[in-house]
Amino acid sequence: MVKPTLDLENSLWQKGYNYIVGIDEVGRGSWAGPLVVAGVILPKDFQIPDGLADSKQVRPAMRLKLSKLIRQSAISISIAQIEPREIDKVGVGRATHIAFRKVAANLKPDFCLIDAFYIKHFARKRQMAVKDGDKVCASIAAASIVAKVYRDSLMRKIHFKYPEYGFGKHKGYGTKMHQEAIKKYGFSKIHRLSYNLDFLFQ
Asked: Residue 74 maps to which CATH number?
């Protein structure tokens, strides 16, 4: 497994960019609940902890441990969430960029490293889209962990409001269990109705 490094951050620090934010999103493909974007600025002396990786490759207990460690070590962290109705209104692509810009505006970094994306309407010379960023770049991997832990916690809380859907287990993604719940109960207020899920009733 490829381990994330601080190589990109180090090259940017050497060029005089002091505050470099790693940005990643979670929940783009989810059928319900918010889209969450996290930004993490790591210190220059950050020691990459064992197990830091793309959040999808890390077990939940380890993600929790890493998230606490990142929150203790980071210079600053920002989280933005876009609710389902806004996603329905503007589309998930635009919603993602709105959240990216919110995080960047809040942290005011010198440079942004983003997993796979450039931030629209943001200075191109102050950002880099990193392919497989959450696998190769420590700042982006850290943002991936923070975003995932935050959103999973949110979906567990939402589960108590809509227990029949099982959000605590699948976090809003299109599992068989989730599909069956939608067929039985229809859509809840937190489902993304723009995702053309009507095929479930055909």
From this structure: 3.30.420.10
Q: What is the CA radius of gyration of the chain?
A: 17
Instruction: For residue 1, tell me if it sits in a domain.
Output: no
Give the sheet arrangement for strand 127-130, strand by strand: 76-82, 35-41, 20-26, 111-115, 127-130
**pLDDT (tens digit per residue) in 9-67:** 999 999 999 999 999 999 999 999 999 999 999 999 999 998 887 778 889 999 999 99
Q: Please state the domain count of the chain.
A: 1
Distances 2 to 51, 57, 134, 140 between C-alpha atoms, Å: 11, 11, 10, 14
Contact 113, 140 (CB under 8 A): yes
Give the C-alpha separation, 136 to 1, whole Å. 10
Residue 113 lies in a domain: yes
Taking the model in full, what pTM does it have? 0.94
Structure-token pair, residue 111: 């440079």
- CA dist 87 and 156 (Å) reads 20
